[in-house]
Amino acid sequence: MKSSPRAARSLACLLLLAQAPIPPLLAKEAAARATPATGTMVAPSVGQADPWLYRGSDIPRDPEWHFGELGNGLKYAVRKNGVPPGQVSIRIRVDAGSLYETDAERGYAHLLEHMLFRQSKYLPEGTAIAAFQRLGATFGSDTNAVTSTTQTVFKLDLPNATPTSLDDTFKLMSGMVTAPTLSASNLKSDLPIVLAEMRERGGASKRVQDAMQKVLYAGQPLANREPIGTVESLTSATPASVRAFYSRWYRPDNVAVIVAGDVDPAMLESYVKKWFTDWSAKGKRTPAPSFGDPAAPKGADASNPVGETRVLVEPDLPPSLMYATLRPWRQVTDNIVYNQGLMTDAIAQAIINRRLESKARAGGSFLSASVNQDDVSRSADATFVSVTPLGDDWQAALRDVRAVIADALTRAPTQAEIDREAAELDVAFQVPVEQQRILPGSKLADDLVNALDIRETVAAPADVLRIFRESQALFTPDAVLKHTRQLFTGTVTRGLFTVQEAGKATDEQLQMALAEPVKADASVRAVLAPVSFEKLPAIGAPTKAIADAPTGLLEIEQLTFANGVKALLWPVAEEPGRVMVKTRFGGGYRSVDPKDAAYITLGNYALVGSGLATLGQDDLDRLSTGRKMGFDFEVKDAAFELSAETRPQDLADQLYLFAAKLDLPQWDANPFTRAKAAAKIQYATFATSPQGVLNRDLQFYQRGQDPRFATPTPAEIEATTAEGFKRVWSKQLKEGPVEVQIFGDFDKTAAIAALEKTFGALKTRQPYAGAGTPAKIDVPKPSDKPITLAHHGDPDQAAAVISWPTGGGVMGIRESRQLEILTQLFTNRLMDAVREKLGVSYAPYVYSSWPVDLAAGGSITAMAQLDPKSVPIFFQTADEIAQNLINNPPTADELALVVEPLRQQVTRAASSTSFFMSQLEGATSDPSRIGTVRSVLSDYTITTPQAMQALAARYLSKNNSWRLEVMPEGKESKTVAAK
């Protein structure tokens, strides 16, 4: 049973501020329920007494979904949803993935996914991307497909849907699925792309994933059925062999079409019938293959059946141990009793996980550990235990984790523990009820697809919440104990341990450690008394705002307090149950002394967990039990940011938490110590792949090797101290301006009263060091000689980056938006050249950054992952594209392929308050930002070929660029840069 909240129209009226004509929503155009073919009335199939998804189940049917079946066996489900306005989300699910392949067909399901986009009945070869872009859909986000072990799903989110565009979309997608070309030329074009994708997914993480599959699912097809396939099977593919796989599984009685969008369900149903009714199956349906069952080794102890174990040496990955108790997967009847069991399972796991987290926070043998049950690929019902040991004594870490679990298996939890986790679940089920009008149709469609994959139903959120609350009496200590024992009882237990050095452990030692009896550890069982906000110290004397004025943008108001705090408030009834809160303070990266750079990373890990007022990390957890509260922290160019999504009833307390973090910080050393360990462990992982090295170092080089943007080395982390952490962050918490944003569903009067008691009561802020003087912005010097970095991953992996510095600041905001158009033009050309024609990279792309808070520091950056010998080809191709954009304006058609998807992206984004929140960051200090919001749509969409050529000439000169390459270790040049 999946929760499937009902969605309705969001903030469509807000789009009017963009000063551009907004197309009428299709829901209004289609009021007459006319079919696109005949214009006659259509009677929707909404009165079914036995919809196919719910057969045999007593789960209450979600009335928003309308189900139907065609004569050829194809199933469909459609529903109306107005979030975002005008969008229709289409999913075509084929009940076949990599587990449906033979040994000779490994990778065929995924290869077919690519080939269906290549050419089909209504799409000439290589035109799919452009065709969907003309409809306003962005390739990769709006248009995509996913192949898993058990299904293949084709996805399209069509913005600004009209009867014409919907008809065209269903036509194109139906042709892809029902009549692909699958020619030799298609195979020749797509095979290099799939192999490039395989190469980019390689490396240490892939080796661990492969090892885990082979160990945990030994003897089952899942052990060696990754969707990407093998080089041998893929390079041996022929059009005939691919067609054979297609014919076996791509048939109407093996397909479901799921549609959710801003259109009457009857109209959506008419498109399904029009474009899929004539699809006929050839021959009898092939039954799904057997996925096998987990099996215990011969002679295994039935009470402790430890089976296969393996120790894998990966020098650049942190030590990580996983073991799983496996049971056969069986199809269940998705009914209320079954879901009540899942709820009890969830409580049992949550209790153990909270105890493990408490153990880790107290310091000891492991950094983190968790328990999670999952039904894996319809192959196993498994309970996984993951452990990250600290230090060399991995046996102690495993023993300590197993001891906590053993205690949960020995004695029932207290009712207080159960009630705490039940309160958390209640909130999780309650939030979708409160926010059901604002859930995107794309998520509703994806939820139903996932339900089909795991052979379950969906339910309306109100029904999920009702069933949960009516089941509270079932969540007793004895019931949770019973379910805990079931979670750790199975056919076989298997384990994988990834170590950094050979000799740290052996397969036999791991097997013995898993079989060894452990003594139950009850030390983390204690449930402390609830923490109440009423007993926390006040921030200070409540103070009223000295000014309350409209901003001139929509109904957004600005409050100003005497202490310098400023707040933007926007109550929006169209987003029920959701309030977004953001607090910006201080000076961000630019206010941190470069010699303290390592503390920036540690702040991201540990600042929130260090506590506030009288509360430590465990207290904060207990304080938020049964509440929806958050505490995200981020360091930005010119500000630090606390953010959270909360609910109207929790807003006042959420504001207290943020204000108390600034005014009443605690400095518990345990989170800092744990953060140091995590940062040191993680560092080596960056070197395992080209992308990891870019994640570690690219921003450092883009910012002129400013140490504040570097990832600190283990030595630099080790040199930090708890006293240094307090010194750096206590200074940042008390300095610089404070801006609070509250957008969403809240009562304005109550919010102002809460602000007066919290942020209005703060001490007057001190300016941060360097405030008022322009920040020094370093940018790389132009060079056609790449900076060369090394990775420790596979020898056929490399990455290439070419970057052109641009600018920054609010005054250039329109230009920054125009640069987004230019980068999309560049991306389309780079994708066509490097992926489609050369086949050397799976997903090359170009992006633009423009720091609004700084006068410089922006860039246009093109990058790709590829094989080492293709790095010069990438640089040459990127240079040629840049020079061509300088020499020649794009065609009007090429520009339209970029502008229309951008128009739709902005239009959809602007249907949510979070869009305006991000656009208005810093507006209380720089009111000019308010005016830039009004032109956002026109800035992203109104341009000319000549304007694009002029921008290219201004920024994309070869003499303005610098380059970086990430090569396999041993192949890098002698000029490796520092860091």
Automatic annotation (TrEMBL):
Superkingdom classification of source: Bacteria
Keywords: Hydrolase, Metalloprotease, Protease, Signal, Zinc
Segments traversing the membrane: none
Domain Peptidase M16 N-terminal, first and last residues per copy: 87-224
Residues covered by the Peptidase M16 C-terminal domain: 237-423, 738-899
InterPro entries: Metalloenz_LuxS/M16 (IPR011249), Pept_M16_N (IPR011765), Peptidase_M16 (IPR050626), Peptidase_M16_C (IPR007863)
Disordered: annotated segments: 283-304
Signal sequence segment: 1-27
Classification via SUPFAM superfamilies: LuxS/MPP-like metallohydrolase
Keyword Transmembrane assigned: no
Coiled-coil region: none
MF terms (GO), sorted A to Z: metal ion binding; metallopeptidase activity
GO biological process terms on file: proteolysis
Family: Belongs to the peptidase M16 family.
Name of the protein in its database record: Peptidase M16
Organism encoding this protein: Novosphingobium barchaimii LL02
